[in-house]
């Protein structure tokens, strides 16, 4: 564990990670986008990290689901341990040369890995890469991301896409909560012995999936 990036030691013990978006009442009332804040918890609901999105008002309100951002993730002492960077990219399978790519750093300034969108005419697909841009895992979403009152699962697969080793789930948390606040609640399930750097990249993938498929939705309602 002495070779792990500082602050990621705790991820070494986890096979389930919960990400809960904090409700911004002013934004919910006025219908405007405010900087997103998230709590990252273990399966017992104990907060492990706290995340804050950084961008400007123009990006949030005019470029909403395709906006560029930097998400800074800090541990409970306030030390930044993960940085997620998303440039402004296209969000359509009709532009395969300019699809989504997200960079995850841990510690900040040191590459931990990447999330790269793959072109597919029917399914949401992504590749998880390590710091050397070598493919490690695949993420394959469903044909439809509207849950219709149930969870939506993005399966985490081996590179051959034949073996499922985990999933990223968008939890449906109820009509009233979603209609009036549109908060995000996600769960990540991965093998406990997965490299902690790749676990950090999976957290970045979760943020990307949220913005691409659920930012402006009512979760299938």
Could you tell me the mean pLDDT? Answer: 81
Helical percentage = 10-25%
Strand order of the largest sheet: 1-2-3-4-5-6-7-8-9-10-11-12
Number of domains: 1
Span between termini: 44 Å
Rounded radius of gyration (Å): 16 Å
* Biggest beta sheet attributes: 12 strands, antiparallel, barrel
What is the beta-strand fraction? 25-35%
**Protein structure class:** alpha+beta
Order of helices and strands: EHEEHEEEEEEEEHEH
Q: Helical segment tally?
A: 4
Predict the CATH topology. Porin
CATH class: Mainly Beta
In one word, what is the shape?
globular
Q: State the CATH architecture.
A: Beta Barrel
The low-confidence runs, each spanning 5 or more residues with pLDDT under 50, are 174-182
Count of β-strands? 12
Architecture overview:
The chain is an alpha+beta fold and 221 residues long. It has one domain: Porin. Helices cover 17% and strands 34% of the residues. It contains 4 helices and 12 strands. It has helices at 25-30, 57-62, 175-181, 196-213, and strands at 16-21, 37-41, 47-54, 69-75, 80-86, 101-105, 111-118, 125-130, 135-140, 152-157, 164-170, 185-189. A 12-stranded antiparallel barrel has the order 1-2-3-4-5-6-7-8-9-10-11-12. Belongs to the phospholipid scramblase family. One of its GO terms (molecular function) is phospholipid scramblase activity. One of its GO terms (cellular component) is plasma membrane. This is Phospholipid scramblase. It comes from Campylorhamphus procurvoides.
């Amino acid at each position: 564990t002495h070779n792990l990036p500082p602050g990621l030691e705790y991820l070494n013990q986890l096979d389930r990670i919960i990400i809960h978006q904090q409700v911004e009442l002013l934004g919910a009332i006025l219908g405007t986008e405010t900087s997103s804040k998230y709590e990252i918890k273990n399966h017992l609901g104990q907060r492990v990290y706290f995340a804050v999105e950084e961008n400007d008002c123009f990006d949030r309100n005019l470029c909403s689901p395709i906006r560029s951002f930097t998400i800074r993730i800090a541990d409970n002492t306030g030390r930044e341990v993960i940085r997620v960077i998303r440039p402004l990219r296209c969000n359509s399978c009709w532009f395969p040369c300019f699809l989504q790519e997200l960079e995850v750093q841990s510690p900040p300034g040191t590459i931990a890995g990447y999330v790269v969108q793959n072109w597919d005419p029917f399914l949401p697909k992504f590749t998880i890469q390590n710091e050397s841009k070598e493919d490690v895992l695949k993420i394959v979403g469903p044909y439809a991301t509207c849950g219709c009152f149930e969870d939506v699962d993005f399966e985490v697969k081996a590179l051959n896409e034949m073996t499922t080793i985990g999933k990223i789930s968008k939890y449906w948390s109820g009509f009233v909560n979603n209609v009036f606040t549109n908060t995000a609640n996600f769960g990540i399930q991965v093998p406990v012995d997965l490299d902690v750097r790749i676990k950090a990249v999976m957290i970045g993938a979760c943020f990307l999936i949220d913005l691409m498929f659920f930012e402006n939705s009512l979760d299938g309602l």
